[in-house]
Amino acid sequence: MKTNIEPAEGKLGILIPGLGAVATTLIAGVEAVKKGISKPIGSLTQMSSIRLGKRTDNRYPKIKDFVPLADLNDIVFGGWDVYADNVYQAASNAKVLDQHLLDAVKEPLEAIVPMKAAFDHNYVKNLTGTHIKEFTTRYDLAQQVIADIENFKEKHNLNRVVLVWCGSTEIYFEESEIHQNLANFEQALQNNDERIAPSMIYAYAALKLGIPFANGAPNLTVDIPALVELSKLTNTPIAGKDFKTGQTLMKTILAPGLTARALGVKGWFSTNILGNRDGWVLDDPDNFKTKEVSKLSVLEEIFQPEINPELYGDMYHKVRINYYPPRGDNKESWDNIDIFGWLGYEMQIKINFLCRDSILAAPIVLDLALFMDLAKRADMSGIQEWLSFYLKSPQTAPGLKPEHDIFKQLIKLQNTLRHMMGEDLITHLGLDYYQELVESM
Ligand SMILES: NC(=O)c1ccc[n+]([C@@H]2O[C@H](COP(=O)([O-])OP(=O)(O)OC[C@H]3O[C@@H](n4cnc5c(N)ncnc54)[C@H](O)[C@@H]3O)[C@@H](O)[C@H]2O)c1
């Protein structure tokens, strides 16, 4: 496959609907890394190594030296928001990063001014921004977003573009007939059908142009048959949903360990306090429902109670998010896990994670953008399940259960990179190190 990957020549535009806490933390961070004043901790594309060949080969290149990724110096950021603040102002308001760090990268941040958003207040009731496009139909709105992307590409002389949704979580709804195929979807755009969410407008615009689209929120967005169809038609990678940070990250690290040791779980109670704009949006029950569904699915898939009823058949799982302004972006979460072991004896695990949401999310956005761009150059289209590692609610082919175990997700991601580069896949079998054993079999 290696010969098929186009080199990462020229500039890559990363366009982001939603220039809030996560997006501005990413952009400021990349600028700080470029200046040499910070390190991109938490980003696999920048920091991690990958093993190649046998353990005895001692080949552990950095991922960025192994696969042809865009260089940070070749990235140009842009985006849309319902508030007109430039990225410096928005990052200052978000209060994730220290002001002195933001001041050190003020110039490039101030230069990024959001384009007017494709927005519908019914989808995010707690937002009052007015930096919004006017439109007659949703088809017209999609054409405006297409024009935005094309103009941005031309203005900055970009070779390639990717879109990553970092906008607010939209209200919960289920797909209907207009989402089932592209013809219905395009007709619904013309009819200005309100069942087409704003995030779908951005996704449609990107895919029409053959531009990869990843979704960092739990909204349906590209996870509908119509847009999967469009992604195949225009040979474009898609991925979603919902960045895996904080409490869910911990769940997908811990739960595989419990199930690996065949320990039972009776209950898992998770609660959070969060005071940023995301927390305010999620204070609306319709928006929280979207998040809740995404967060709840994780444990079911890892424990598989239908296969392991004695261990997980009666598990009670509850997730709460409470809006609590004093904490800002510094979310605090508590998990109480009631487990049982040998002969049914009960034990408890308590986790109290004082996390920084956007600090965990920013490197995910960077990696998703760089890997989606790589996938496009490697001629991979449709759902990129190998990027499940980054997502709470990974999009998969119809009928295929998502893999939530973070360690399996990492193996999948690394093996995909090895496969792309024509390296042997690593199975971790290891019998070949014990030749006499293999010969005796
Ligand atoms: N921070 C995390 O750890 C994390 C984890 C998983 C998912 N997410 C999701 O990522 C998204 C961003 O999180 P955040 O903390 O940056 O939130 P935020 O509220 O700070 O930023 C979201 C921004 O999106 C804008 N927006 C809303 N609708 C829009 C539209 N239609 N077009 C353009 N802009 C729009 C809002 O004005 C806001 O500025 C949220 O959906 C959140 O649920 C965040």
UniProtKB/TrEMBL annotation:
Residues forming the Myo-inositol-1-phosphate synthase GAPDH-like domain are 246-358
What's the superkingdom here?
A: Bacteria
| Pfam families (alphabetical) | Inos-1-P_synth, NAD_binding_5
Q: Which is a GO BP term held by this UniProt record?
A: phospholipid biosynthetic process
What Gene3D superfamilies does UniProt report for this protein, alphabetically? Dihydrodipicolinate Reductase, domain 2, NAD(P)-binding Rossmann-like Domain
What keywords are assigned to this protein?
A: Membrane, Transmembrane, Transmembrane helix
* Membrane-traversing stretches: 12-30
Q: Which InterPro entries match?
A: Myo-inos-1-P_Synthase, Myo-inos-1-P_Synthase_GAPDH, NAD(P)-bd_dom_sf
Could you cite one Gene Ontology molecular function of this protein? inositol-3-phosphate synthase activity
**Keyword set includes Membrane:** yes
Task: State the similarity comment.
Answer: Belongs to the myo-inositol 1-phosphate synthase family.
Protein name, UniProt field: Myo-inositol-1-phosphate synthase
